[in-house]
Specification:
CATH class of chain B: Alpha Beta
Shape of chain B: globular
Largest sheet of chain B: 6 strands, parallel
Distance between the termini of chain B: 51 Å
Radius of gyration of chain A: 15 Å
CATH superfamily of chain B: Glycogen Phosphorylase B
CATH superfamily of chain A: Glycogen Phosphorylase B
Oligomer: heterodimer
Strand content of chain B: 5-15%
Number of domains of chain A: 1
Radius of gyration of chain B: 17 Å
Strand order of the largest sheet of chain B: 3-2-1-4-5-6
CATH topology of chain A: Rossmann fold
Largest interface: A-B, 45 and 44 residues
Shape of chain A: globular
CATH architecture of chain A: 3-Layer(aba) Sandwich
Order of helices and strands of chain B: EHEEHEHEHEHH
Structural class of chain A: alpha/beta
CATH architecture of chain B: 3-Layer(aba) Sandwich
Number of helices of chain A: 5
Strand order of the largest sheet of chain A: 3-2-1-4-5-6-7
Number of strands of chain B: 6
Structural class of chain B: alpha/beta
Helix content of chain B: 40-55%
CATH topology of chain B: Rossmann fold
Number of helices of chain B: 6
Chain lengths: 160, 159
Amino acid sequence: MKICISVGQGGHLDQSLQIKQAFKGHEKFFVTAFSKITSSLKNDEDVYFVREHFGQNSSSNIIKTFLLILYQIYTIPHSIYILLKMNPDVIICNGGPASLTLTYLGKILGINIIYLESLTRIDDISLRAKLIYPISDLFLVQWKSLEKKYEKAKYWGKVI
Amino acid sequence: MIFVTVGGSSSGFSRLIKKMDDITESIENEVVMQIGKTDYKPENSKFFDYVSKEEIEKYYRKANIIVGHAGIGTIISSYKYKTQIIIVPRRKEYDEHFDDHQMEIAKRLEEEGIGIVIYDVDDLESAIKSVKGSKINSLDREKSLVKNLKKYLDKLEEK
């Protein structure tokens, strides 16, 4: 089976690598943002780099939302290319630059969608998680309280 | 060696880096800092902005104390090498992060005994001096997550 791991460049990447053992016996590839941090990842793994978000640090919520939507549109052709070329059976999403387009396009293509919410989300899930929640086949959280709050969510443990 | 790290964040963390620089000379230990986008540049120790994952692992491996922001990557890496960690959460009010979730996560991890948490950088020097730099026990809590996820994936393949 082929697994696509969509992941951010910082702590999210460490969280995904921490559970690498779960992917043993399956073929896997990463989709992440290119940075100094992720540059060495391609020595050991199959990696596709997508341009990082823009406007993340903008103080205005309206501008931030606008740039986020613009960014998602921008990632569509690249995501289609990756999914058609690699043809994965499962997408495991722990954030990452193209996570929204990858999961939504993946769903259309009949790919199983797994979302792993970050350990940093304690009281509520992120906006991205809320958007992916309805289309996810498996939705994992890392705090018990979130399992109660979201019907579909499952708590199977923490990355640390 | 004390390794100070502010992680892959795109915001600086001058409050921590400047304080560490101020106290470096009174600490009897080499200090190396990964400062990310921090404007303040240390004068008393070696520093760099970002390096590859492969490269940063070398510092984690070599350090006997880690001083880091409350990022999960930083905490995971400290545990990987069983190194004591002093956590300084980033604060929204100082523009160190877009929200205060590092405060929240630091509090919860402190309750679980994962590390020493410093909220006021004036407490950093005494915290560093109180830590002996001995190895810590790994938590191994990822094992149940790995086991269940593996089971799910293997079952999916059978279909």
